[in-house]
Amino acid sequence: LRVGVLASGRGSNLQSLLEQSLGGKIDAQVVLVASNKADAGALEKAREAGIPTRVIDHRGFASREDFDTAMVAALREAGVELVVLAGFMRLLSKVFLEAFPQRIMNIHPSLLPAFPGLNVQRQALEYGARFSGCTVHFVDGGLDTGPIIIQAVVPILEDDSEQSLAARILAEEHRIYPRAVQLFAEGRLRVEGRRVRIAPKAD
Ligand code: GRF
């Protein structure tokens, strides 16, 4: 499976995906890492692994649609079959969604539908939740609203800070994102309305 990763930041989820992919643990090759930020750590991680990179700065485009058109062109050129958002801080327009229907995944550091949006580890703490976690989902037109593929749960501990909770969640992100990509690679994900059915493994 040819995977394109979009990232705006540090790139730890990209890193975990690259490790699984380059180690032959998943049937997916990252063929392109693209970012809207020239200084994203994710680009550095991609270069170290010898993966092609592209910087497409959204500020150079008049509209979201124009930016998305450029992103889609880069992904198509690379023959990308699945788009993996890993800390990509841009909302996708119809142009993007229609170019890759049910072929865009995102990871979010909360148990959706609780706490969509930003600073969600802090939100979970301040709310007083006892558990949080992370969610891999297909991307639709909303903010963190698409059909859920996998979730992982972590406890919120008495002495947690935003940082300690984020770290506990991140460890789970690194575990479940490659797993979701592998399920997709195996053709085992079927979207039925809001629900994603995971087919049993063929033998
Ligand atoms: C992760 O917490 C992810 O859930 C969120 O953005 C963060 C990206 O981290 N969407 P990294 O760039 O993969 O390290």
Automatic annotation (TrEMBL):
Annotated Pfam families: Formyl_trans_N
The active site annotation covers 108
For (6R)-10-formyltetrahydrofolate, which residues are the binding ones? 64, 89-92, 106
**Transmembrane recorded as keyword:** no
Q: Name one GO molecular function term.
A: phosphoribosylglycinamide formyltransferase activity
Alphabetical UniProt keywords: Purine biosynthesis, Transferase
| InterPro entries cross-referenced by the UniProt entry | Formyl_transf_N, Formyl_transf_N_sf, GART
Q: According to its UniProt record, in which pathway does this protein act?
A: Purine metabolism; IMP biosynthesis via de novo pathway; N(2)-formyl-N(1)-(5-phospho-D-ribosyl)glycinamide from N(1)-(5-phospho-D-ribosyl)glycinamide (10-formyl THF route): step 1/1
In which family does this protein belong, per the annotation?
Belongs to the GART family.
Q: What HAMAP family does its record include?
A: PurN (MF_01930)
* Stated name of the protein: Phosphoribosylglycinamide formyltransferase
Give the gene symbol. purN
